[in-house]
Every structure is written in C-alpha cells, then in structure tokens.
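Q: For a teaching session next week I want to show students how multiple molecules come together into a single three-dimensional assembly. I've collected the sequence lines for a complex. Could you give me the predicted structure tokens for the whole thing so I can convert them for display?
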Amino acid sequence: MHKLIALIRNEFAREFDSPTSWVFFLLLPLVFTAAVGAGLGGLGGGAPAEPEVFSSSIAVLNEDAGDLGQLLVDALPAHDLYPQMAAEWPEQGMALRVPPDFTQRLLAGEPVTLSARIPPTTSSTAIEQMLRAAVGKLNSALAAAQAALAQAREAGLIAPEREAAFLRQVLADTLAAAASPPVATELRWSGGVDLGEATLAGATGAQQASAGQLVTWVQITLLGAAEVLVAERLMGTWKRLLITPTRRNTLLAGKLFARLFLGLVQMTLLIGGGMLLFRVNWGDNLPAVALVSLAFATATVSLGMLLATVVRTRSQANSVVIGLSMGMAAMGGAWFPLEITPALYRQAVQVLPSTWAMRAYTNLLARNADVQGVLLEVGVLFGFAVLFTAIGALRLGRTE
Amino acid sequence: MNKLWTLARKEVLLAFRDRGALISMLLTPFLLTLAIGAAFGGGGDQPLRNVPVLLLNRDQGALAAYVVEAFESEQVQGLVLAERVNDEAQARQRMDRDEVAALVILPADFSARLLAAADPQAAADDPTLVEVYASPSWRIGTAVTQAIVAQVLEGMHMGVRGIQAAIGQLAQEAAAPPAQLAALGAALGQTMLEAPPPTRAAITLEIDSAGYRPFRWLDYTAASMAVLFMMFTAMAGGRSLLHEREGGTLPRLLITPNPAPVILLGKMAGVAATGVLQMVILWRATGLLGAYWGATWQAVLVTILALVFCATGLGALIAAWARTTAQAGALGTGITLAGAALSGSFFPRMNLPGWVQTLSLLTPNAWGIEIFSRLQTGQCLVDVAPYLAGTLALALVYYVVATLGFRRQFSA
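A: Of course. Below is the structure for the complete assembly, covering every listed component.
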C-alpha cells in the first residue's frame, strides 16, 4: 500500500510540475464549457434562459396601389424583421418587393407573388424562415377573409367600392386576434420529471456543454495514461522499475490509479466550476453523479492502458490520444445531442464509452435521475473497464 | 533562393515522414469530419429525421383531425414519424421508456373552444390546452413537435377568427339579417374545412438568392476541423525552432555561410508549406465526402494561403518569445484550443454572442472560419476580400512581434 501511494504521489507531482499544466487541466475546459454553452444557448442558466432573439432589417419597396401591401409591411416586426421603406429597388442587400397589383389581385381572389432578395450570409436561412413565417401568417388570415369576401360578394351583401375596406378590416381584426388564442400548447415532461419552476426543463445549452466538455477533456487526461506508459517504456525506466522488489501489478496499478484520481479530481473541479460559474444544475443526486464519473473514468483509463500496448512512440501516443478523445466525444454526443442523428448512427456509437457516459449525464441533468436511474449506464461503463483492462493486461504481458 | 528552398523542403519532408504527425495533421481531422458528416446524414440542411410522435385525439368535434393530418402531411414527411394512438396509459408508458419523442393529446373540447364566439377574450384568458407530453432526451424533437402544433393552431385560429371578424363586420354594417349572416358563417366554415391548405395560399414568396447555399454541417465541419488542425501544425512548426536551439543544431546552422534571416525564413517557409499542403489535402479529401468549400478553387486557395501565413506568424511569435520547447508547446496548444472554442470550431460561429465573435478575431481560427463560412454560403473572392485583408493584417502584427523576439534571441 505504501508503495502504491508513493507511486500515485509521484505521478501527481510530475503532472503538475509546471503552472501551464493547470491551463489544460482546468482553465481550458472551463473556457470551452463557457464557449460551447454560449454557442448552444442558455449560458448562466439554472433559471429559464431567454434565447437571444435574432432580428434583421429589410429594405421594402412597396409599389402596391392599394393599402393591403402596407398591412403586410406592418406585420413584419412581429417576426423580428424591421422594414426600411425604399423608393426604388436597392442594388444590393436584403430587400422585399410588393408588386403594384397586390391589393387588386387579393381582392379578386387571385394569387400574388412577392419578390425577395436574401444575399448569401450565414444568417440567410434564419431570415428566409422569418420572412416565410410572416407571409404564412398573413396567408392564414387572408384565407378566411377572402373566402368571406367571396361569399359576401356572391350574396350581394357588399358593394364593390366597399370591398377593399372590408378585406382590410377583416384582416386587421384577424391578425389582432392572433395574439389571444383560445387553444394553446402545454409542455409536460415524461418520467415523472419535476424540475421545478426555476429550472429549464430538458438540458439547457450550458448543461449540455458542461457534460460534453467534461467528457471531452477528462478523456484527454485519462487516455493520457497511454503516453505515460509509452514514455516509461521508451526511456527504459519501466524495465528498471520492474527489477525493483515492487511487483509489476503494483507498478501498473500505481500508474493507472494516479491517472484515475487525476481524472476524478478534474471532473470534480469541472462539475464544481460549472455549478458555481455557469449555474449548471447537476441535480439533487450527487452520489449518482459521483458513481457515473467513477465508472466513466475507470473505463477510459483502462482504454488508455490498452492504447499504450498499441502505439510505439510518444508522438503517436499524443496524436492518438487527442484524436480519439475528440472523436469519441464528438460521436458520443458530447458536442451535439444524438437525437438529431440517424437511428443507425445512434446504434453504431453504442460501442463507445463516451456515448454511455453522455447518456448517464443527460439523465442526471435533464431528468434529475438518481442512482437507480443510471445503473444501466454505470454497469456498461464498468463492463468496458473490465474488457479493456483484460485485453490491455494480456497485450502488456506479451510486449514485455 | 536554393538554400531557402532546401531548408523549406527539409521541414516538409520531416513533417510528412512522421507517422504521429500525419495522424494529427490529416487522419484525425478527416475522421472527425467523416464522423460528424455521418451524424448529420452527410448534409445538414435537415439533420433531424423521423422524430417519433404519438397523437391522441380526444376531440368531440371535427377540427382536431386537422392537427393530426398536419403531422401526416407531405410537408413534414421525413421530419416526423407520426402514429395515432387510442390508449393514453400505454402511450405514456412508451414515452417514459423514451421510445418516442412526444405524445400530443388533443382535448375533448378542442373544437368547441376554437369555435367559441360568445366571449373570445374569456376563451383567451383561460385557453384549453393541447398537452405535449415530451421526453427530456428528445429536446430538439420536442421543439419541432411544439412548433408544428403551434403552426397548425395558429392557422386554424386565424381561420376561425377571420370568419367571425367578417360576419361581425357585415353585422355592423347591417348588411343582412342575423339569420342570413349565421348561414353565411356556417357556409364559410364548411368552405374552410373542405379546402385543402396548400391551395389556400394567396401570397407566394419568390426568393432570389443566386448562389446562396444553405448551411450544412459537413461543409462547416470540414473547414473548421482543417483550420484547427492546421493551427496545431503551425504551432508545432514554430516549436521546432526552439527544439533545434535546445538540441544544438541551430547554433551549427548559424555558423554556416547562410545568414540568420535566411535560416529563419527557410524554416518558416517549410512550416507554411506544410500547412498549405495539409489544408489542400484535407480540402480535396473532404470534397470526396461531399464537403463544399467555395464556388471557385481560386477563392479557397487564396484563403488557405492567407490563413496559413497568419497561423505561421503566430507560431513564429510564440517561438520567438518562449524560453523552452515545453513552454512554447503549452502556449501554442492553449491558444489554439482556446481560439477554437471561441471561434466556433465545434458549432456554428453565428450562434456565439457578438462580443465573443469579435474577441475571437485575435486568433487565426476565427478569421479562417469566418471566411470559409462566407464562401460556403455562396460569396465570392471579392466579397471576402475585406476579411482576407484582416487576416493578412493580423499576420503582419504577428510577424512584427516575432521579428522583435528573434532579434532579441539572436543578439543575446
């Protein structure tokens, strides 16, 4: 036991022999969490986050001879599009043109086409959706108003000179009524989830980022066991250690447990940092969080040991560790939710420990799961650990 | 010039003969792009597919059926996979097992409340609720389901209130007796129910977006991963100078007839050439997967050259001011990764707050992602010229600071 503790302490001392180690260990993961959380939205949200509303201005050339064109223009701000009236068609930039026969055609019940120009920018898709939503809303109101006008005209209930005013009034009343619907939607979460008023149901951007970056960065630390073992092998110090009275398994355990504890310390700091700095709510079941973290760390450090038997140089080890960490994180759902991927893809990535870790963390964050709620994921992760350790130990014995 | 070329060629050969370097330069970004491309079905304009949704219709009227039909319409085909159910308990159990994204329950008084004309304001104050019972594991699928329900409800509500507004207007003008108006209202309602939604669109929108391409995850990831890993290469290249100094080969080079600036330029040129080759290989390789980088090869190549020039400048700056290889390594990797996080290497840059996007322009990552994103939406070389100028200006700053550092090093 003394030897084991000494080996672990030695690894910790080597890991933190320079201040820059703390940059990679703690600072960068927190920076990543903040940035990814901001990118996904919901940064700083333990309370329901108000999404940043995207808005844009648009030049409008209203050539309509009647007044229904103005009704369309007045409806744009409700969809975060702010019209800037233009006297002529602008040479460049975003623009919308209302044709001269807009009112005339609508009164006649004929279709009419609006022309728009949306220059290629990174927000073109969003602006197109906003414009289509504004037009769609007007279409819904128009459908009823035109049908009413047609029937009233047929029944002789309305004079021709009154038709435009009638259509305009009906449209205006309908659009005004849109703000007070008698039927609305209510969202409830399954599984008896009761997250309280202060918590945004479902994982927020910050929660997704916190869990995802935890998985990404801790994998780098834990898989780094491969670099440590390869370095010892290449420098010849592993052989020297083997001829000491300390047993081989103790030496190996010392190296691996040191990495495991490093990973657990990092996880604790990142979880704590997420809670304090970004108000990420890790739920009421910290024992469940600890259990998942232990299982994931054990699986990953075992994989690191297995990798050490595959790579030959430190450079290779470094490249493989970075690549595998990022790759497994990306594919396992640490960078984006897996629900947006094809079903076959979701099945295929079940072979990755990171997938099961993200599943468990999502359950903890989004459902406030307890230990029982994550037992399946914890079991699978420990299973990975056993498998990787068995294969790694076998290969390590052969290479020696 | 021969000496410069020889030194540069040496750097390129060293980089491309190192298996570990090849893995991180080429294999890792390519595989990441492949993985993310596979995750988003190769494209990205509609990454979400076949969201499983259950529909339970309890409505005693006829209008809720239109909500159900909306989920089965051609417009959402491929996006949602709707299934009609009758057993609420069983449906909720399937929800609890995460088999489906959401269960939409249409209440018994759906039609009645929608058609209520007596007191619309009272109806609005106490709306009847369509329950969307959702799984926390399907956050995005839930949002899509809610959006579809909301859109259909809006259309139906507008239709009903439109009819009510029209009848009300005619009643105000005393255009006809109440009985006739009531009959007109009923006829209008029937017309609205019978007319299929697509033919009701009176206003169509034609968008002129010549050359405009929608956002695709594959395109974005291909470029952003290439930029990220090129940055690693540039930082490693800068570090190699310190490595030579520590190893004693740099002092030996300096006592040769070659002037110090030629040696430095040769090394930096080699690093730059490696970076350019790396990005060109990734550009063409990801192109085989279907990734789009820009309309013209000239625009992409000019961007690559400007970006590599800038990244190499940052690598030189770090090498000029760092004391040891380890210090340079830590700084270079730290700046690269922090820059990647703040620039949008892992998700669309446009989603980041404005101040983060501005701050990130201190790094080559941000300029690279900004320019490639614009090229990928259809902009041309002329459109991105200001951003290329920004990249080169940043490069100039890096090289000036690096030169000061190297002068200090070599004069010491």
